Amino acid sequence: MRKHPIALTGASLLMGISAFAVYAQSVEPTTPPPPPEFAAQSEPNFVGISDIFEFRALDSYSEPAWITENFVNEGKLPPVEERLPVEPMVYKTANMPDGIGEYGDVMRHVIGGRPEGWNYIGGQSQGWGGIDIGMYECLTRTGPLFMVRADELEPLPNLAKSWEWSEDGHELTMHLIEGAKWSDGDPFDSEDIMFYWEDNVLDPNVSPLNGATPQSFGEGTTLEAIDEYTIKWTFQEAFPTQYLYQMAYGTFCPGPSHILKPEHPKYSDNTYEEYKNAFPPEYLNFPVMGAWVPVEYRPNDIIVLRRNPYYWKVDEEGNQLPYLDEMHYRLSTWADRDVQAVAGSGDFSNLEQAESYVEALRRSADDDAPARLQFGARTIGYALQMNMSGNGWGDPDARAQAVRELNRNLDFRKAITMAIDRQWLGDALVRGPFTAIYPGGLYAGTAYYDAESTAYYPYNFEEAQALLDGLGLVDTDGNGVRNFPEGTAGGQDVEITLLANTDYATDTNLAEGVIAMMEPLGLRVIANFQSGNARDDMQDSGQFDWSVMRQPAEYISVVQNTVGLAPVGLRNHQFHRAGSDGTLDLLPFEEELVDIVNAFVATDDNAERAELMKEYQRIFTENVYSVGLTQYPGALIINKRFANIPAGAPIFMFNWAEDNIIRERVYVPAEDQPGYELHPQTLPDVPGGNGPVS
Ligand code: GLA
Predict the structure, then answer these.
(1) How far apart are the two ends of the chain, measured CA to CA in Å?
(2) 470 and 396, same structural domain?
(3) For residue 410, is it within any domain?
(4) Atom 6, ligand 1: which residue's CA is nearest?
(5) Which ranges of 408-504 would DSSP assign to H, the alpha helix?
């Protein structure tokens, strides 16, 4: 038999309860070591919101000449001024890094995800990498906030062009852009908003893609349509400005009710599954409010999107946006996205898989390298999440249920966190000053992070073993794996499944690192590695014991999707949702986290918020709510031919870089356009309408 440290466990168990108490006392957390110096390579030019754009009517508008000639003059499309809203969004020239743009060209994205279909609000993924961000517009917008001055920090108006609060702060009236149209010419109005809210967010049978739930907007919140272009929110709290962040990507981006509604079970004979899948990837010209419309799909090859002729944003000279006529999404791998962006056969990448940093840096350092590569702050982080439901979320069998009980035990979570050698994990991804120790919770270096409030249990294998011994997890059959105590899961070996995403090498590398570190501890962790869509479905339906995943935006900005920081609702949290009886079995410290998050949302006093987040971080990390693994910076790689890329655009902050760089105003100077368009001079087809011109 393999010699194994676990052989000691029996002996330490014999030392009994008092020995365990001694151990427990000696397991004192410390503060995490300061992350290695790593300066972001460029800083944003901070501005106020009204410096970026405003909504107003201009004297005249224009569009690419080929649209006027081939479509408008041919009677296939109304003139541009009739396609725009009464007051379009007007981007200000002074805030455009390279000024007014020129039409044409393509941004060639490469992605590792695959489209399930176009019904984003019904829960389908489009394959990520910014396809959905370019197709769906939301009430407010957060990506560009990385360049907004702190004293003006508030989500940007978008589909909601303005809003006002009632005197008592319980009502928020929002004014929608007026006279705007979906890409097929159908009017956009409050009916689209109400369909999204009533029949998708409030309908418990529908799970919009990025997890919008009623709690995303506050317990008891109501929404009503006042008229075609006015909606009114009523909140239980006064002035919960926080919810403006949830009205951005990805929780309030309405879909085209004129084609979705007839498929919804409430208005048809469809099942919910049929509603979700009503618009498969093969369905082209799906109506959008975003700048580009899908016009071609070839499985495992490419998705092509063309400019939306009804897009409702313009520049100060009245040129209808976007400047870029086409978007490509090569259906490949995420690692290939890095390789192609660096080589110049792709145009864009969020360099986020640390394994490829050294090579990407080396190749980009060349003066004639085709792409710019710029590192930002450490906003990529990974954690090991444990399924915290003890009451049946995901329908666990006896073994999985026994694991859930362990997950809910603080000594168990402490043991796991102390058995993780984070320095080793980080170095195994990439050597150098990139990775930092991440104990869990909020990221070091972000606005609400406080090192003093962060409990870090350093690597301590012996203590980890002692804690597991103390839980009665002993290797009774001498096979090197601890057993559940007699009477629990038949006293079988402690086997734990670990869910991770095979679309990213980093995810599986870190998961394998965790598995390797659990082995000497006597825990058999079994890889459950799934492709992205399947992984997401398993996590969302609670079918996991443990899961290693990249952390969402709330751990960075806090103000974005704040409710994701705790299980404030039945199904809003990543690793603790309601069980089969429809209730949430929160542990006392989770209740505290919920209270803190609710208090944070209910106040806009900055000092109070900072204090609340210190408390959140303390409780989170002391209780090892999730086991942080590593955090590191990402780099934005963009081909040098693109103009209007804002300085200091991070790959991930309030949103991903695909939103941050404001793609609708990015352009390529005419003389640099290489002719990559696959469908030049065509527009998305509309029912009975345009018909692509060949
Ligand atoms: C994926 C990618 C990210 C980013 C997002 C956008 O998650 O890994 O880099 O492109 O999609 O949604």
Answers:
(1) 72
(2) yes
(3) yes
(4) 129
(5) 410-418, 422-429, 461-470
For the record, the structure tokens of 580 come out as 């089969």
Q: Quickly tell me which residue has 């000053």 as its tokens.
A: 433
One-letter amino acid identity for 112?
Answer: G
Nearest to 355 by CA among 439, 420, 436, 431: 431
The pLDDT value recorded for residue 2 is: 38
Stated pTM of the model: 0.93
Find the 523 Cα to ligand 1 centroid distance in Å.
33
Neighbouring-strand partners of residue 501: 530
Distances (CA, A) of 663 to 232, 291, 642: 30, 9, 10
- From ligand 1's centre to the CA of 52, what distance in Å? 25
Using one digit for the tens of pLDDT, what is the confidence trace for 104-134?
A: 999 999 999 999 999 999 999 999 999 999 9
Which atom number of ligand 1 is nearest to the Cα of residue 133? Answer: 12
Residues having CB closer than 6 A to ligand 1 are: 128-130, 334, 350, 352, 656, 658
Asked if residue 171 lies in contact with residue 234, where contact means CB atoms within 8 angstroms, the answer is yes
CB 197 within 8 A of CB 185: no
Decide the pairing of beta strands 380-386 and 627-632: antiparallel
Backbone region of residue 466 per phi and psi (left: phi > 0; alpha: psi in -120 to 50; beta: other values): alpha
- Do 622 and 557 lie in a common domain? yes
Q: What angle do CA 229, 230, 236 make, to 5 degrees?
A: 155
Question: What digits encode the pLDDT tens for the residues 599-608?
Answer: 999 888 889 9
The 3 state secondary structure assigned to 641-684 is CCECCCCCCCCECCCEHHHHCCHHHCECCHHHCCCCCCCCCCCC
Q: Looking at the structure, tell me whether residues 624 and 646 fall in a common domain.
A: no
Give per-residue pLDDT as tens, 35-46: 998 887 888 999
Tokens of 672: 């640099």
Question: Which residues constitute the domain of residue 90?
Answer: 49-375+635-672
511 and 581 co-located in one domain: yes
Residue 426 lies in a domain: yes
* DSSP at 70: I
Atom 5 of ligand 1, residue of closest alpha carbon: 129
Residue closest to 109 by CA, chosen among 629, 482, 661, 617: 661
pLDDT lower than 50: segments of the chain: 1-25, 693-694
Same domain, 628 and 639: no
Q: Using alpha carbons only, how large is the chain's radius of gyration in Å?
A: 26
Is 434 part of a structural domain of the chain?
A: yes
Picking from 180, 199, 223, the residue whose alpha carbon sits closest to that of residue 272 is 199
In a domain, 562, yes or no: yes
Burial (CB < 10 A; 0-12, 13-18, 19+), residue 561, is buried
